[in-house]
Amino acid sequence: MQNNSEKQGKLVQTIGLTSAIVLVISSVIGTGVFKKIAPMSAELQSPGLVLTAWLVAGLISLAGTLSNAEVASMLADSGGDFVYYRKIYNRFFAFLFGWTNFAVIRTASIASIAYVFAQSLNSLIPIPNSSSEMSEMSFLGLHFLDNLGIKLVAIALIVFLTYFNTKGLKLGEKLSNTLVTLMIIVMLGIMILGLTSSVGNWEYLKQNSVKFNPEEMQGGTLFKALALACLSAFWGYEGWNSVGYIGGEIKNPQRNLPLALTIGMIIIIAMYMMMNFVYLYILPIDEFIKIHETKNGIGAVAVVTHFLGSWGGVLISCLILVTTFNCTSSTILLASRLFYAMSHEKMFFKHVDYIHPKYNTPSKALALQAVWASLLVLSGTFDQLTDMLIFAAFIFYGATTFGVFILRKKMPDAPRPYKVIAYPFVPAIFILFCIVLLVNTLMERPSEALIGLGLMATGLPFYFYWKKES
């Protein structure tokens, strides 16, 4: 039941297919396509393997998208996977999903992307920073005043975009449409200029690193390296399911939501493959390994500066500003609907299910989300949290895909406006990969995996409290 203590509006179906596709693209393309070339090169030491990792991660993400689309075509509503889990599994599992998104997945993503925006702005316009004495001050082991200038810019961006998205869904839609168009034009320009540049060399695409050992890089070693590199690539693809959170605000969601998910992901995969191809055409892979080892630079900036000169560095920095601004805005817009849906079901803080009577947006969910994301920025822990994000996210991605099999058995005659292609192979392959990724992460990076599970578990006291109150 809706909270009636205050006058409220309602969520309105205003988003068409084109805008839904744009929101898929804008919620995914943020920092990964620019930054992950360096760590992936260090892990694989081979241009061919790096491109393979991007393609494998993209195709696996597409398999998850196609599976998610069938569930979305049946159960589309505000809250996305939270709504699906409540109907497929139970309230407890739905709560764990929502809480993990609030504690880590979405809010840490907002904090991380906003911070990269501030870093990129700092490379163009130096931002005053905190003194070394202030930076060394700590509370509970956290350095809240370290890089304070950049943190305050990141927080200012979160606050501004939260206010902006409170003013109505159409404003956020128009902003995404404009920025995605600009972003794609600039990225295509970089691809064309890069491939026609005289500094590029086709041989770079064939040359492995001087550190590459073909005898070692095979069998289990190769599999582990590819799996870890795919973790970096998955951060680049992270967020594709977020548009499901506004299922209740998309026109004809049973048709348009699956189409938006599928078309959006295909466009993203194509853009990522072409951008990384250009990177590896312009610079030899050892240059990206050096960037990773020195931890001083962004692979995409080094590439564009190399073939366009200093103004190219400015161009790519501006592009990163646009993509991070847009991705932060879209993540803020979409994720808030999840927390609204949780509160509406009495599984979250009271009154967060409030809908602004004038703008028809979940204004209190937006505000709470901004507060927590800003605290994560100040704490400086968001980078560590995003390392654990992929592990937690794939638990839920696998659960949604497994829901395809459950719904086929429980509701065989229910209308399915969209059915996943090559059923049962596509969802089965995705579920198998999720299991492999989770097991591999537990074995290779146990601390990140266990902390990720621990962060999920922090919601347990809240769940039992809210269950008692409802």
From TrEMBL:
Q: Which residues form the signal peptide?
A: none
Q: Where are the transmembrane segments?
A: 12-34, 49-71, 92-118, 138-163, 175-197, 257-282, 314-340, 388-408, 420-443, 449-466
Q: How does the protein associate with the membrane?
A: Multi-pass membrane protein
Predominant location category: membrane
Top-level taxon in the UniProt lineage: Bacteria
Task: Name the InterPro entries on file.
Answer: AA/rel_permease1, AminoAcid_Transporter
Where is the protein localized?
Answer: Membrane
List UniProt keywords, sorted A-Z. Membrane, Transmembrane, Transmembrane helix
Tell me the PANTHER family matching this sequence: AMINO ACID TRANSPORTER (PTHR11785), SOBREMESA, ISOFORM B (PTHR11785:SF512)
Full protein name: Amino acid permease
